[in-house]
Amino acid sequence: MSGWTGMVPMEGFEAPGVESFDLPSLFPGVPGLEWFNRYMLQALVAFGLVLAFWLVMARKNAMVPGKAQFIGESAYGFIRNTLGRDMIGHDFRKYLPFLMALFSFILLNNLWGIFPLTLLPTASHVGWAYGMTAMVWVLYNAIGIKKFGFGGYLRHATLPPGVPTWMYPLIIPLEFLSNILVRPLTLSLRLFANMFAGHLLVLVFVLGGEYLLLHSEPLVNKVAGVASLIFSMAIFGLELFVQILQAYIFTVLTAQYISSATAEEH
Amino acid sequence: MLPMELTGSLGIVGYGLGAIGPGIGVGLIFAAVIEGTARQPEARGVMLSTAFIGFALTEALAIIGIALAFVFGGL
């Protein structure tokens, strides 16, 4: 096999995998703080930035908006019109603060993936996606239960109007499965897996390119390494698009779940 | 002749097969948007926002597939 291995260019290369996401603690050895890793730090910084942004934007409201106020009002208008009013309908004002907080928090956490000093989207660790989805799940079910009562909400969520009686045994388990159980699963996995796959793609191109350029001998490999590194810039562009899109999709689906939990039967 | 030896996870092959369906689905969604825009250009914004929700739902299948390829990759 010695002649064969010479043709494999990446012999000593350790491909990035799931273990690339197991980051060490920031305070190793400090009792009670071992859980504090980079994901936690990024999420806390994002929390602070989002809080500061909306507090500053809400404080001074001039009649003629300046540049900063224009940015804030555009962001607010975008979330209110496309996420709140279009998805939830006439009762959207109650849920608007939650949607705004959710959208800006997820957007900022995703953008850590292309910010040069961090380069790691927070939701690429599945716990963060689970946590945010659990909050949304509790919220939309609680809203439905508050409006219709427990039995009424179960009936509302599992029984679409106009279904003939003989189809009840088929429809009720299916709707329960899709509305109560599968929704949080897909919502969290969508956000997590998009961030995970995107970060992994970046790792493959950057680490693979670095290995080919610096640690392998033939000139062809070095050219391929440079091409890979240049192409990773395009991957970053794709990632930027995906990160913004996923923050938007997460909030749109949250709004849609709230609207379907509270919708009156027509 | 060299003995051909392939090592690695079969989960990645499974993921490749699993990505066919969502690929077709995403293509159909945006084909419909393009056709709709050609027929009625002023409805583009409305169609695009619906299309992105459909796109996310369809793409989730492929994305969940890549997560599962890692989950079952060690088996």
How would you describe this protein?
- The complex is a heterodimer of chains A (266) and B (75).
- With 266 residues, chain A is mostly helical.
- The radius of gyration of chain A is 24 Å and the shape is globular.
- The N terminus of chain A is likely disordered.
- Chain B is elongated and about 60 Å long.
- The mean pLDDT of chain B is 83.
- Chain B has three helices and no strands.
- Chain B has 75 residues and is mostly helical.
- Classes of the chains: A mainly alpha (266), B mainly alpha (75).
Please give the structural blueprint.
The complex is a heterodimer of chains A (266) and B (75).
Chain A: H1 2-5, H2 38-59, H3 67-88, H4 96-111, H5 126-148, H6 150-158, H7 168-214, H8 219-262
Helix pairs in contact in A: 2-3, 2-4, 3-4, 3-8, 4-8, 5-6, 5-7, 5-8, 7-8
Chain B: H1 10-18, H2 20-39, H3 44-71
Helix pairs in contact in B: 1-3, 2-3
Question: How is this structure best summarized?
Answer:
The complex is a heterodimer of chains A (266) and B (75). Chain A has helices at 2-5, 38-59, 67-88, 96-111, 126-148, 150-158, 168-214, 219-262.
Question: Which descriptors apply to this entry?
Answer:
heterodimer, A: about 270 residues, mainly alpha, 8 helices, disordered N terminus, B: about 80 residues
Could you list the spans of chain A in which at least 5 consecutive residues all have pLDDT below 50?
A: 1-7
**How many E strands of chain B?**
0
Spell the H/E element sequence of chain A: HHHHHHHH
Distance between the termini of chain A: 72 Å
Give the N-to-C terminal Cα separation of chain B.
31 Å
Query: Count of helices of chain B?
Result: 3
Oligomer: heterodimer
Radius of gyration of chain B: 18 Å
Strand content of chain A: under 5%
Helix content of chain A: over 70%
Order of helices and strands of chain B: HHH
Q: How would a crystallographer describe the biggest sheet of chain A?
A: none
Mean pLDDT reading of chain B: 83
Q: Largest beta sheet of chain B, briefly?
A: none
Q: Give the low-confidence spans of chain B.
A: none
* Rg of chain A, alpha carbons: 24 Å
Q: Largest interface here, residues on each chain?
A: A-B, 22 and 13 residues
Number of strands of chain A: 0
Gross geometry of chain A = globular
